[in-house]
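debug: dumping io for the single-chain case to check the tokenizer round-trip. Nothing else runs in this session.
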Amino acid sequence: MKTLLAIDDDLGIQKQLKWSLTDYEVVFAEDRASALQQLRRYEPAVVTLDLGLPPDPTNASEGLACLTEILQHNPNTKVIVITGSTDTEHALQAISLGAYDYYQKPIDVDVLNVIVARAFKLSDIETENRVLKATAYKQQDIIGNSESIQKACRMVEKIAPTEITTLLLGESGTGKEVFARAIHKQSPRADKPFVAINCASIPDNLLESELFGYEKGAFTGAHKTTLGKIETANGGTLMLDEIGDMPLALQAKMLRFLQERVIERVGGRSEIEVDVRVICATHRNLAEMVAEQSFREDLFYRVSEITLNIPPLRNRGHDIVIIAKSLLHRFNAEFNTNIQGFTEDAINAMLGHRWPGNIRELQNKLKSAVILADTKFISAEDLGLVASNQSNTLPTLRKVREQAETQAIRHAFNVANGNLSKTADLLGVTRPTLYSLIDKYKMLDLRPQDNEQPGTAIAEEQ
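debug: decoded output
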């Protein structure tokens, strides 16, 4: 059953809610402190809140303060405010603070049941949408659901609708161009050109003409006027990959283009206006290059109006396996093979490998493995990786839970300055539960002293 938290100090109302909302497990709190304790313990999706809470039941100040703290703890909680029949002003104030809905006394059980059911339904839909959104990045060729990659994707969503010049930072092979294309695809310029140029792959003496174009006769071999990458991207997005490798002499001309959005072709005399969104990328530390005077400081601030850090593959956890499975599907289609998956030693080897070449290295190893594999499942040997015994050293769920609970208890114990009752409140558990966890994990230094025996505390609580 879904848990509903009802915050009300009136025992009559509590009994009415208990017997009326039979589709839910209803838990109660009578004031702000107990409400926050129950919130931590049960993490309810829906809360009913009487604004008239002690110590000031005739005023809504305590109830509104409780509402604020509930939403600070979990902004997704649906709070249904219950007010007096004439208290419309405070009800509307609660809605402005983030309450889901309000209901005026006296309580009509049938109406309240409808409101609560609708709140739970909306909460379920929002939860499902968050899950779908976490996996929707696959459609943008950004594959993975680790916290670091989702954070980066959320930044893409915020950056894309703007015209801000973006600097993508990340190691070689992390997918900087994929992120740049994702920004372009979600921007108002999505139906316009996306043009990328790698500043490190073109000789210094040719890079200027590649970027800005050249007029006929500007140099030997210039038989016709040719547009540069910047003009080609007009109306769309220009990606300057590895901008940290741009020659110092060319940086001044690039700075003028970024500031004025005008260019001059090599050998030309007239200014040409261009409407281009610019995304830059590099694996270098531009701040250090500025200090070394190998990169212009003014250009650095111009290209990094906002910076997006792309995590390396080794820091993306199980994303490695998700990406590998996606690539396997692609390579099966490309090479007309029917590899069905990976052996356990291959998965452990992939998770244990450092991936200095990041996704590019994974593509390389997987492509050859698909071609060379003798069975339907790719092994660590097929990938050219050393099989590890990680399967024997992976922590069990019990061990993970023990480590997490131990760390949380010690942190709460320190925050509570050694007070076990406050520690239990912070953790959202009862004191007997806390004592049993302390004994279970043999946390001898946290055991109650003689003046606070577990048995006494349990008896008091019961």
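debug: round-trip ok. The chain has a mean pLDDT of 88.
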